[in-house]
Amino acid sequence: SGQGATTASVTDSTEDARGVLVGRGPSSSADVHVSRYPNPAGKAWAVLRRARSSPVCQHPTGTVRKLGCRLVLTSLPWEVLDARWDVVVVDAPSGAGPGEPGRMGAIYTTAARVT
Predict the structure, then answer these.
(1) Predicted model pTM
(2) In the chain, where are the structural domains located?
(3) Which of 86, 88, 93, 109 shows the smallest number of beta carbons within 10 Å?
(4) Which conformational region is residue 4 in: left (phi greater than 0), alpha (psi within -120 to 50 degrees), or beta?
């Protein structure tokens, strides 16, 4: 982290969150948030098709939590949803199987925050 920089880690696993907290140094400014990813990977195409046809999901600007798009990860705390981020890495959830949480919400929420 640079001077005045904040790092936020978002995960759907409390075990992963504990691992991040244990692994960070005493001077770290990393925040860890556990979020719920509501859309399973197996429903990705249906969710994306619905979002593409929804006016509230197109061209997101402003405060992402006020959009009303079902892809927004509303379980994130306000300080994450309202922040402007310089860099975002989406590496979760795994979406490894059709019943696992998918990444659609994380990608959409990220895109809405950096545009």
Answers:
(1) 0.69
(2) 36-114
(3) 86
(4) left
